[in-house]
Fold these 2 entries.
Entry 1:
Amino acid sequence: MNQDYIKPDNWSIIEEGFDIERVKSSESLFSIGNGAMGQRANFEENYSGETFQGSYIAGIYYPDKTKVGWWKNGYPKYFAKVLNAPNWIGIEIEVNGEAFDLHTCTKIADYRRELNMKEGWYNRSFVATLQNGTEVAVNIRRFLSLDLDEVGVINYEITPLNQDATIVYKPYIDAGVTNEDANWDEKFWEPLDVNQQENQAFVTAQTFKTHFKVTTFMQNSILENDNNLNLSPLATAKTSDKVQFTYEVAVAKGQKSSIQKLGGYTVSLNHENTQEAAEKVIQKALAIGYNQLLQNQIDAWAKIWEMSDITIDGDVKAQQGIRFNIFQLNQTYLGKDSRLNIGPKGFTGEKYGGSTYWDTEAYCIPFYMATKDQEVARNLLTYRYNQLDKAIENAEQNLGFKNGAALYPMVTMNGEECHNEWEITHEEIHRNGAIAFAIYNYYRFTGDYSYIPEKGLEVLIGIARFWHQRASFSTQKNQYMILGVTGPNEYENNINNNFYTNYIAKWCIDFANEQIQKVAIEFPKDHKRIIEKVKLSDAELQEWKKVASNMYFPKSEELGIYLQQDGFLDKELVRVKDLDKSQRPINQKWSWDRVLRSPYIKQADVLQGFYFFEDHFSIDELKRNFEFYESFTVHESSLSPCVHSIQAAKLDKMDMAYEFYLRTSRLDLDDYNKEVEEGCHITSMAGTWMSIVEGFGGMRVKNNRLHFTPKIPKEWKGYSFKINFRNQIVKVAVTASGSTFSVDGNEDLTINVNGKDTVVSPENALSI
Amino acid sequence: MNQDYIKPDNWSIIEEGFDIERVKSSESLFSIGNGAMGQRANFEENYSGETFQGSYIAGIYYPDKTKVGWWKNGYPKYFAKVLNAPNWIGIEIEVNGEAFDLHTCTKIADYRRELNMKEGWYNRSFVATLQNGTEVAVNIRRFLSLDLDEVGVINYEITPLNQDATIVYKPYIDAGVTNEDANWDEKFWEPLDVNQQENQAFVTAQTFKTHFKVTTFMQNSILENDNNLNLSPLATAKTSDKVQFTYEVAVAKGQKSSIQKLGGYTVSLNHENTQEAAEKVIQKALAIGYNQLLQNQIDAWAKIWEMSDITIDGDVKAQQGIRFNIFQLNQTYLGKDSRLNIGPKGFTGEKYGGSTYWDTEAYCIPFYMATKDQEVARNLLTYRYNQLDKAIENAEQNLGFKNGAALYPMVTMNGEECHNEWEITHEEIHRNGAIAFAIYNYYRFTGDYSYIPEKGLEVLIGIARFWHQRASFSTQKNQYMILGVTGPNEYENNINNNFYTNYIAKWCIDFANEQIQKVAIEFPKDHKRIIEKVKLSDAELQEWKKVASNMYFPKSEELGIYLQQDGFLDKELVRVKDLDKSQRPINQKWSWDRVLRSPYIKQADVLQGFYFFEDHFSIDELKRNFEFYESFTVHESSLSPCVHSIQAAKLDKMDMAYEFYLRTSRLDLDDYNKEVEEGCHITSMAGTWMSIVEGFGGMRVKNNRLHFTPKIPKEWKGYSFKINFRNQIVKVAVTASGSTFSVDGNEDLTINVNGKDTVVSPENALSI
C-alpha cells in the first residue's frame, strides 16, 4: 500500500495527527527552499525520535573519496556529494524545567503541518502535554525568503494553556553536522570562527578540500503577545563549531510567548567577507521586519504562480499533485545563477552525489523555458558551456579520446564525474546527446539564436567529436556502430547499437554540422573565433559526415520497429501484463543479471528517441514502437511515465495517458516507491508538467509557432496552463466541450490548434 | 623492465645484496608453507622499513562486510577474506643496547636469501654493523614442518665479529594483527587468553563472527655454539593479545649465540582444546629436536620431488622457474584435507577474498592428479560436493532459481560467494561447467568411477538443473540461448551466447544425463538414493534434453570459426600485433568501456572450450580458431599462456609454444606484472606444469590409456617429467633426438606415443 495521509487540498500540503512513523517522510514532503538554500522539515526543538536532518546550500559540495568494490580505470577518485550544511533552525526549549521533545510528551493533540504552496511558507501547530503536566499550544511558521535569499525566518509561538510557565529558549547554530551517506564517515566541515554580538551569532566554517567558506548566522528576538521584549541572552555557550544562547521568560497561562529567529547562510561563492555579509543581511531583514518579510514572500510566490500555475478542475488530488510539482521545482531552481543546477533531490535529501543529470536537459528545460524568462533556460545551457573544458578533460584523461572530444559526466556538480559504475559512468554516454538536443530545443522554443554562436557551437563541436570517435566501423556490416553502451533504459548494460544512442549520435553530428555552416554565414566572426579555438578542419568535418551518413540502426522489418539494441528479439519476450505481480518491482525482487537478460524496460528508450525527434517518424511508426515497447516497460524510473503519457495522448490512448499522469504527479505525495523519506524526486516533477502541457495540451513549437492539440482525461472537468512564448503569455483552458486560448499584452499571436493556424488577439480569447 | 634479481640456480631461489626496494617482493618470493599454514618471508627481528606482514592458516577466514559503490540485489552481504593470522615469528633483538633493525644498520654486507626448494627451508644471512659499531654475522633458517604441520622452526644465529656483545632476545607472539585489505579497517581477531609457562607461551584468540579458535604458540631455547643454555626468561611482558619473553646473554667476540624458536598454530578446526594441543605438539617437536626436524623436512620434500619434479636440461632459468612453480603448489596444497583448497595467492599474500576459483578445477586438478595419489584430486572434488547445499542456496536465494539448481560461487572459502561485481558474481557462470568437467576429468584420468555414484552425480544434477533453467528460448532463432554472461575472457561483460559457456552448458547436461543412466545400471542403489533425494523426474530430464539438443552456438561460416559471442565480428578487428605497444597492458592503460568494446581477449575463451573438448573438434578447426583468437589475445591473465602454449605445441607452432611457456614459468620470479609484492600467482603455476606435460609432452588420457606426442623447444637440450598413472609411475624424458619412457614397479604398461600403442615394461625403458 502506498501512503495516503496527505489531506487533499487545492493549495496546501497538509498532514493531520502526529505519527512517529511519518516523521521522516514528512520531513521530505514539507521541505522548503528558495533556489539558494533549502532544508528538510526537521523540528526546531529537540526530537529524540527518528529523524533525517538536512539543510543544503546551492553550489556547496564536498568531493568525497570514491568507494568501490573493484576499481576500474577511469573512475573518478573523488566526487562531489550533496552536503549537509550547518544547522541554523535549532531552538532547544524547556518548559517549566522540562526539555521539550515531541517524542517524550504524554499527549499531542491537533497536530497539523501545512505547506502553503500559494504563499510559500510552512506551518506546524499542535497542543502538547509535557511529562510535568504543562499543556502548551505551539505554532511555528517558517519560510525561506525569495527576496533575501540568504535569509530564513522562524516564528515559534508557545502558549501555556493550563498553568503559568517558565519557558527557556536556547536557539543555536551548529556546524558540527555530518552526512548520512558519507562514504567514509568523515567530517566535511572545518570550523573556522565562532562569535556573537548581542542577539546575533555567527559560525564560520569551510568545507574540507573545496574550501567553500560559509557563515551560518542567527538573530533572535523574544516576544510576548507579539511585542518584542528586547531581551538579551542570559547566557552564551560556545564550542569550536557551535554557539547557543539562553533566554528565559515567565509566561502567564493563556499568554503567547514567541521567539523569532532569523537565520541562514552567506557564502564565499558570493562574498569576500562572509561574516560581514551576514551582518548586513541581518540588518536588512530586521529593517524589513517579520510581517513585511512574510508579505514579500507571499507576493513573490504570487508572481511565480502567475506564470506557472496549472489548474485542474474536478480532481483535487490531481490539482494538489501538479501544484506540488511546480512548487518544488521553483523551490529548487529559479534560474538566477548559471553555476547552479537542478539536483535530483533538490533541497529535500542528500541522496545521489552531484546535482546535475541529463534530467536537466531532457525533462527540466522545457518547464523552465515555458514558465520563466528565457534567461533561465539560457543559464542552464551556460552551466554546461562553463563545464565544457572539464568534459573534454574527462573524455581525454578517463576514456582516452583526443582532439577536444567532450564527454559530459553522468552526474556532476562542478563538471567532474560524480558516478562510478562502469556501466553508467563509462557507458551511459547518450547523456551527451541530450545536452546537444537542449541547445536545439532552446533555439526552437525561444527563437534566440544568439546562444549558438556565442557559446553553444563549441559544445556542439565537442559532442560531435565525441560521437565521431566513439563510433567504430564494422567491416562485416559496412556501417558505423556504437558498441558497449547503456541506453536510457538502465536495465540493459554494455549493449551494442542502442537505437536511441546511435540515433542521437548521428543527429548530434548532423546538427553540429548545420550550425557550423549557419554560424559561418550569419556570424562569421564567431565562426572564425571558434574554428580557430577548436582547430576544426574540413577534413575532420568530412570524417564526421562519413560516420553520420552511414550509421547503423538495428530494426525488425517483420515487426516494423526499431530494435532497442542488437539481439533484443532473442530475449524471452513475456509482456509485463503476463509477469507475476509478486515479481515487481523487478529491481527489488530480482538479481541484476536477471533484470539484464529480461526484456523489461525501466524507462523510455527507443520511445525517448521518438519523443525528441517525433517529426522524424510517422504516427504509424510511433504506434508500432509504442505498443511493442510499452508492453515491456515496468516504469521503475520516476522519469518513465511522462514520456509515455505524452505519447499515449498523441495516440489517443487517453486512459493510458491519464494512468501514466497519475503515477508521476503524486509519486512523492503518495510515496509510490516507499522512499520519500530520503527526499523528493525533483527532476521527474518537470515530467509531470510535460504530461499535461505536451501530453494533454499537445503543445509543440514548430516553425516558430505554438501548436496545440488539446485533449482532456474524462476524469477531469477542465484544466488550464500558461506558456511564456517569446515574451507573450498564452493561456490555454481546456474542458470536455472545448478549449479557450488567450494572450496577454498588446500583440496578436498566431497559434496552430489541431492543425489549423489561428490568430489570438489580446482582446478576444479564442474558443474552439 | 621486469625485475631480474633472483640468481639462476637449479634448486634454489637466491637473492644477494640488501635492497630496501626489494623487501616486499622478496617477502612474497621467499614465502614458505606446508599446506596447513604459511607465511611471507617477513624478518623475525624488527624492521622499520616498508614491509607487508603476512601469516596465514589454511581454512581460517573472516567474513568481511561487503564494500560496493552501488548495491545490487544478489550481492553477498559478507564474504570471506584471507585472514592475516597472529604473528609467531617475531624476535626483537638488542645488541649492546641497540635495537637491531636492518633499516638502521650502518652497513649490511653479504646479504643473502635462499629458498632451498629441494629441502624445503628458507635461509637469510648477512653481516651487519649497528650504529653502536658492533659488527655481527647473522644466519637465520626457517621452515614449516611437513611432518608436524602445526609447527614451524626458526634457528636464529648471531656471532659478534668485532667485539664482545650483550645480546637480548625478545621473542614474542602477537594476535594484534590486521589485514591490509580489510574493507572497513576492522580488527578480525578477538583475544581470549594469554599465558606462559617457562619458555613456552600461548595466545588464544578467535576470529570475530566465524569464531575459529586459534592458539598461537612459541617455545624458545637459547644456545651458545649449539649448546642449549637452558635459560629461562628474565622477564615476561603480557597484554591482552601479546606475550613477549626477554633473554639476555653475554657473547664473546667470535662466539655464536642462537635462539631456536618453535612456533605455530593449533586450531579449533582440528582440536577441542587448542592450547592443550599446542602443548602436546611442542612436546613432540622438542622430543624430535631441531636437527631431526630439519632432516625430516628434507626427507619429506625429497618424497614430493621424487614424484613431481620436472627437469629441464640446458636452461637453468627455465629449470628454476618450473621448480619454483611445483614447489609453491606443494607449499599451498597437499591434498590431505577436503575442507581446504588452492587459494590464488596461496600463503603468500592476502589479495582476493576466498580461496577457491574455477582455477582449481580447470588448472590445478590435472597437476595434482598426475603428481599425487588419486585421493588428493578426490578431496578437491569432495570440497565442491560438501558445498553443494550452499551452491543450491546461492542459486535459489540470490538468483531466484528453483528446484535444486546449483550455482557455485565465483570465489569462495566456505561455499558462500566472496565476490561482488554483478558481471562476475552473477554472470561469470561458466565456472559451474569446470566443476562438472573436473568430475569427468578425474574419472578419465584415474579410472576411479566410484566418486560419481557416491558424490559426483548430485553435483552434476545440480549443475545440469542450473543450465537448464538459465537457458532461454529465442522464438526468433528457434533455439536455446544463454544471455547476459561473462565468459572466461573477462574483457567482455554481459554478452549473449558466449560460445564457451553455451558449449559447456550443453555438455554438462549431456554428461549428467549419461551418468544418471550409467549409475542407474551399475549402481542402482545409489541411483535410487540420489534420485529420491533430489526428486528428479523423467519429465524434467526430457526438459533438460530439449535445451541441450537445441542449443545455439554462434559461428561464422565465412571464417570457419565459432564466435566468442554474438556480434564479435562487429568489433574493430585490429590485431594485437598492430596495436601500439604504448597501449599495453590495456587493463592498465584503457578505461573499462574501451577494453570491453575492443576485440582483445584476456585469456583463452573459445580456445578454453577447444582445450577441454579437443576431441570434439578437428585439427583444422583448432587451427582456424587458434589463429583467429590468439591474434586478438593480450594474455593479461596469468592463466592465459598455458592453454595457448599447449595448443601451439599441438599445432607444431613450437616457437610460440615456448614463448608462452616462458611467460608463465617465471611470471613471479621476474615479476612481469609488477605486483609480486602482493603475493605469488599460485594457481597459474599449475598451468606452467600443464604447458610442459600436456603441451611439449603431449600427454593425454584417452580410453584409459596414456598418450604422448613429445616435442621439445629448440632452446632446450632435454626435459623429463613423471606421471602417476593409476599407481604406476611413468617417467618421460625427451631430448631433441628422441624420447624415453620408463615405468616403475612390476607391471607392464601400454602407452600410446605419437599415435602408436607400445608396451613399456619396468625392466626396459622404451626409447623412440
Note: Chain B touches chain A through 46 residues (CB under 8 Å).
Entry 2:
Amino acid sequence: MSLSPLIQQLISALRCLPGVGPKSAQRMAFHLLERERDAALLLSDILRTAVTDLGRCEHCSTLSETALCPLCADQSRNQKLLCVVETPMDVLAIEQTGGFNGLYYVLGGHLSPLDGVGPDDLGIDKLVQRLLQEQVDELILATNPTVEGEATAHYIAEQLQDLAIKVSRIAHGVPVGGELEYVDGGTLAHALAGRRAI
Amino acid sequence: MSLSPLIQQLISALRCLPGVGPKSAQRMAFHLLERERDAALLLSDILRTAVTDLGRCEHCSTLSETALCPLCADQSRNQKLLCVVETPMDVLAIEQTGGFNGLYYVLGGHLSPLDGVGPDDLGIDKLVQRLLQEQVDELILATNPTVEGEATAHYIAEQLQDLAIKVSRIAHGVPVGGELEYVDGGTLAHALAGRRAI
C-alpha cells in the first residue's frame, strides 16, 4: 500500500466521527497534516480532556465537567418547571430556542425493551424521587416524537398519576415554515386533532 | 450560556476539520461523548502522533514518518518514470487508479507569485538536481488542470528543455462517464484539439 501507515491510521480513526466516510476522512487527514497542524494538536488535547473530565450532572444527568451543570446551578431559572428530554443534545436544542427558562432532566435514551433498556436505566425512579422532594409545578415531557419517545413519555406520565403535578407533552403538529402538501399523514392528523381556537 | 465550557471548546476545536460547520461540530461532539469515548481517545492519540511524527520524504517530499516514504523505498517500481504532482493527496489519487508504477515528486503547491510562492518554495531546483543525477526517461507533469497548475507545468517543462528527458503532461479532455452536454466549453475544446485516431 502506498500510504504511510500513520496516515492510514489517522484516516481510519477519523471515521469514528458521524457522517464521515472514507473520502471525507482522507480529505480531513491531509487537510490537518498539510495546513492545520496547530489546530490538530489543539483538537487532540481537547478531545482527551473532554473525554476524561466530562461526567454527568448529579441533578439532571446532562453532560457536565462540574458536579452541578451550569443550568442546574443557575438560581435565576424557574425551579418549578422541569423538562424531561432524551439526550444532552436535546437540552441544547431547547436552550437555543430561548423559549424555556426552567430546569431539565436528561433520560439518556428512551424505553426500549428489545435492547434491554428499562425504566431503571433511564433514571425514571430518580426522577420520581426528585419530584417527591422538590416543589415542581409542571413537568414537560419533551421526548422525541417517535414510537419509543411516545412510549417513554406515557410511562413517565403514568408513574406520576398520584402526584399533584401538572404533566404536559410538547405539541405535535405541522412544522413552522413547512408546506402542508409535504407533511406526512400522521403529523397532519395530529395537527388537525390538536387544533386550537384563534 | 447553557453548555459546559469544555463541550463548547470541543465543538469549536472540531471546526478545524474541513467541511464541518457549527451544526456538524455539535453533532460530532455529542456523538463522541455519548457513544464513542474510546474511539475519541484513540483519535486524540493518533492525531498527536501523526502531527508530531509525520515529516517529508527526503526524496519526493510527500508526507512520511520515515526518511524515505514507502513508494520511494519500493525497488520494484519503475525508477525511470517520474510523476510531478502538487500535493500528497494527488499521489494517493493516482495510486488508487492502479495505473502508474513509477515514482513521484510532490511540489507542495503551485506557482503563485501573488501569494509569494516561487520556484524555490516548490523545490523545483531540487527536482532539476534529481533529474541531473538520476536516470529518468520520462517526466509526467500531473499538476492540477487549473491556471496555476498549467503555469507550474509549463515552468517546469521550460527548465528541462536542455535535458534529454521526455516531458509529458496528463491529457485534458471529457471525463469518462460524463455527458457532452454538461462539459464546459474549455474542456470540450481541449478534447477536440487533443483527439486521437482509433
Note: Chain B touches chain A through 55 residues (CB under 8 Å).
